Amino acid sequence: MRGMIIIDKELCKGCGYCVDACPPGVIAIEENFNQKGFFPASPEHFEKCTGCGMCAEMCPEIAIEVYRE
Ligand code: SF4
Ligand code: SF4
After folding, report:
1. What is the domain-level CATH number for residue 49?
2. What integer pLDDT is reported at residue 66 of this predicted model?
3. Total domains, the chain
4. pTM confidence score
5. What is each CA distance from 32 to 29, 35, 36, 37, 42, in whole angstroms?
6. What sections of the chain are H helices per DSSP?
7. How far is Cα 56 from Cα 39, in angstroms, rounded to an integer?
8. The pLDDT of residue 22
9. What is the pLDDT of residue 30?
């Protein structure tokens, strides 16, 4: 199964839970901060996403949407 995620950078608080939760290491923390001053998460390695949904389950801000093929 292939997957894709969309992260709402303005909802993200940069906690990093999704980074730790993602088995294939798709997500990284950006170097630029968002409008609230947090460094948001970003899907850096799209091609590795399986659509498992672990990242979205861990996100306390409900900032991640997961799509599966
Ligand atoms: S859906 Fe799964 S594989 Fe894709 S970014 Fe989230 S945790 Fe990683
Ligand atoms: S778990 Fe949610 S709030 Fe935390 S870094 Fe990831 S997207 Fe941002």
Report:
1. 3.30.70.20
2. 98
3. 1
4. 0.95
5. 9, 10, 11, 9, 11
6. 17-21, 54-58
7. 18
8. 98
9. 97
**Amino acid identity, position 46:** F
User: 45 is in which domain, residue-wise?
Assistant: 3-68
Q: Which of 59, 62, 66 to mutate to test the pocket of ligand 2 (most atoms within 8 A of CB)?
A: 59
**What's the rounded Cα separation, in Å, for the pair 43 and 48?**
10
Ligand 1, atom 3: closest residue by C-alpha: 49
Ligand 1 centroid to Cα of residue 60, in Å, is 15
Indicate the residue type of 2: R
Q: 46 φ, ψ to 5°?
A: -50, -40
pLDDT tens per residue across span 11-68: 999 999 999 999 999 999 999 999 999 999 999 999 999 999 999 999 999 999 999 9
